[in-house]
Amino acid sequence: MVHPLGLLQSSVESSSMSGAGSALERFFRDYAIASVESPAARLPAFYAGSFVAAGPRGSAVFKNDEKFVEWLGQVHEFNQRTGMVSMEIVSIEEPLSLSSRHLLVSVHCGARFRRTGDRLIPFRIAYLLEKVADTWRILAYISESDQEEEMRA
Question: What pTM, to 2 d.p., does this model score?
């Protein structure tokens, strides 16, 4: 399963996000930046202690622990092998408030690869977020499409 924002992200755009300084925009911008860094650096701090990752191939429950950090390393290696050169946040849809602490947010992203040049490979990820001590944490994400299949298209 591929990490939703990749680990070789070189640019982040927020062209359709409402409220340039919004907390959600900052959360996803910072999440994207952390995705570029060493997999073990800051990325685990964006996730809850346990979370669900899902996509067309199925789902898995992860603990935010050393195995998760190892998985991030595998994702990083995959992205290097596939030639990912950039990832962009295209837009964030209006969030759906599920409770005073929970939001469902759809994020439209796009990836560029060496072999696709300037062509943006679009995809959408739905995130279930929880607010803990004034900080958002990812409880689950569901990818609408499979990154490997999209790259072959």
Answer: 0.77
